Amino acid sequence: MEAGFDPDAYWRQTPRLFDIAIRARIRVKEQDQQGRAWLAWHIAALPKMKRFPTLKDLLGIKRVVRKQTPDQIEAGLRRLFKMSKADWSARRQPNGE
Question: Is the pTM of this model over 0.70?
Answer without folding.
Answer: no
